[in-house]
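User: Run a structure prediction on this.
Assistant: Running it now.
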Amino acid sequence: MKILLVRLRLLGDVVFTTPLVRALKRRYPDAHLTYVVEPAAAAVVHGNPNLNDVVVIPKNTGIRRLREDFAFARRLRRAQFDVAIDLHGGPRSAWLVWTSAAPMRIGYRTRGRTWMYSHVVARPADLSPQHSVLKQWELLAPLSIGDCDRSRDAVEMPGNRAATERVERVLAQAGIGQAHSLIVLHVSAGNPFRRWPQEYFAALVVQLARHAPGRRFVLTSGPSDAGAARAIMERIQVLSQEAAGAVFNPPLDVDDLRALIARATLYIGGDSGPLHIAATTHTPIVALFGPTLAERSMPWRDPRWFAESVDAGPLRCRPCKQRACEPGDFRCLTGISPERVAAAAERALAATRAEAEPRLRALV
């Protein structure tokens, strides 16, 4: 059997599909699985042991995109897939699944595109509290694959040895060793409605640094908000020279980011792609939720690994479609105080120490 999977666009959304990929391989161990993805999220599925092929389709526009898509469609048709699953539901992914000519084409019920599929699944409402992993999982219903179990079907992203070595060199150059408690904070989001205030991040770092001088902090930010980390570092410099000396902002690609988080003692960040990259590691997580719900986007990982959400509590305007702030003051973000996030971070670090103590005693 040959199975085609198409998931375009965002980093976190591709991470959310990885439990489904594992379930397909478990159900059809001899199947040949091909995953089509755009460049920005390709690192998530490169090296996935459950995939036979990862095909990266360029994200172009205009006439160039039309030419490339028609050539790509011919390639898909020649491959003679038995099953094609549209994990995205957008016009481009639906068209690619349709042009594959697979006898079984599975996708969400979407106005104007339902006819492209042979098997249709109801699409949950965008603001429903159902977790995104489970929304993707529903596309497996026509294949009679059972329920998703968080312990067995966690998200995954393979580690990259070269990235791990690069990150160790970067940390060594910054004077960060194994004795330091390394905290990674992702301080941006592609969507401005999910950006926790920069001054709050700065205050959080200063508070955590004062609590334990041996802590070191790496600030990361994505291409859509690349200056955020630098601006926060400048603010920390004003607040505390001591804390400023413990903060770094190295250049990282997606593989490097995953390696860095896996090496860290704690990850803190909002609902964006890096949060879900963090979920593929065992590193404790403190997740900040503004206009989105933890029920929908909490790290989907084995419950053994610490993850805690922090939000502003129930608000009439939350969740929202993130097109305009109805009250105008972004209270879902400003209502999350640095003190509450720091308290969650201390709980995460304490839980990590408690887990490590029995192992350390066994070594003595």
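The CA atoms of residues 134 and 304 lie 20 Å apart.
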